Amino acid sequence: MVTAAAVVLSRSGYAPAVLTVAHLSRTFPGPRPRAVLHDVSLELVGGDYVAIMGESGVGKSTLLNLIAGLDTPDGGTVEIGGVALAGLDDDALTRLRREKIGFVFQAFHVLPWLDVAANVALPLGLLGVPEPERGERVRSMLEAVGLGERAASLPRELSGGELQRVAIARALVHRPALVLADEPTGNLDPDNADQILALLRERVKGSGAACILVTHSDRAAASADRVLRLTARGFDPAAAKAR
């Protein structure tokens, strides 16, 4: 089901929303049901770069899973580019994720038997992008993240910082509208973390995508335009701050 896209006031005027989250709630069932999210709402346009912080167990990763259609809310809605996730079957959800979302994780999730170029090319292959366009886009993205000379390297030959650069390149190579980054610097030392955060921000902003960065780190959150604190009652308006 396609609905009318929300229009949000951005820095440059009114723009169609990349992401609209409205009154989202999630409770995990069991002998003692556990309410994780309650009445969470959020809207992002292209170029927005938002950090979400909060205590462990408050639902930050659950929120990302709901936004990505990997989990189903008990209440509320998620729309990406005006498309309501609730109206999509599994095949349509998979296609939307492949086309519209880029993921960056703490654990890199690169395939060890593929070289750097092949890892970065994976989203393009899933979308059926033909050669030579696929090869050109991979080469361009690897140059952009400083790995132009490592295209033929295997993951075991790379440092942690280089592996996260591969993950960023893979997340952005298919030009997604939305990037979801879950603790992307959790496995890195502070110097490498700062470099990766600067690179992620630069590449996301340059592509015009919107980005949600989930983090426990104040240092990481400082790279974002806005910092939102997630609580058991939703986002804390008193804790929201902008750079």
CATH class: Alpha Beta
**Looking at CATH, which topology would you report?**
Rossmann fold
Architecture, CATH level 2?
3-Layer(aba) Sandwich
| Overall SS class | alpha/beta
Estimate the helix proportion, in percent.
25-40%
Tally of separate domains: 1
The tally of strands reads 13
Give the termini separation: 36 Å
General shape: globular
**Any idea what the CATH superfamily is called?**
P-loop containing nucleotide triphosphate hydrolases
Descriptive notes:
This protein is of the alpha/beta class and 243 residues long. It has a single domain, classed as P-loop containing nucleotide triphosphate hydrolases (Rossmann fold, 3-Layer(aba) Sandwich). The chain contains seven helices and 13 strands. The protein has helices spanning 60-67, 90-100, 116-126, 133-144, 160-172, 190-207, 218-221, and strands at residues 7-10, 13-16, 19-28, 34-44, 49-53, 75-80, 83-84, 101-105, 178-182, 210-214, 226-231, 234-235, 241-242. The strands form three sheets. Strands 5, 8, 9, 10, 11, 12 and 13 form a seven-stranded mixed sheet that branches. Helix 3 runs parallel beside helix 5. The longest helix is centred in the C-terminal third of the chain and has 18 residues, at 190-207. The model is unreliable at 1-12 (pLDDT under 50).
Task: Fill in the keyword field for this structure.
single chain, 243 residues, alpha/beta, Rossmann fold, seven-stranded mixed beta sheet, four-stranded antiparallel beta sheet, 7 helices, 32% helix, 28% strand, globular, disordered N terminus
